[in-house]
Amino acid sequence: xTDYSKMSDFEINCAVxxxxxxxxxxPTPENPNNWMILSGNTLTELNFDGSVCAxxxxxxxxxxxxxxxxxxxxxxxxxxxxxxxxxxxxxxxIQMFQGDDVHIEQDENPLRAAMIVFLMMxxxx
Length: 125
Prior knowledge:
Blueprint lengths: L8 H11 L16 E4 L2 E5 L5 E5 L7 H10 L2 E4 L7 E5 L1 H5 L6 E4 L2 H13 L3
Antiparallel strand pairs: 1-2, 2-3, 4-5, 5-6
Helix pairs in contact: 1-4, 2-4
């Protein structure tokens, strides 16, 4: 299983976006792309004909508008503060009661925790 807690918000956003069907590539040190520029959550690609294509990756880790529909559709529960100053996201109590796999993530940011749980729930698909 992937350790999503070690990933940056941007990497988590991209992983969620890919799972949601957005298609794009991101340059990495192992796979550089001189034609692509990353600024914030926007990837700008310079095409061979000189035109520019920008792909905006939604900010699932910090935007309720982006993350909310995923949280609701996947029945992810959020606990804002678990007494340790961090948020807790889990698969729903219903899923736990039915004996389905339980995924739990704890983070200071509840949306980030929820997106990590979402990725854990869908890992391997």
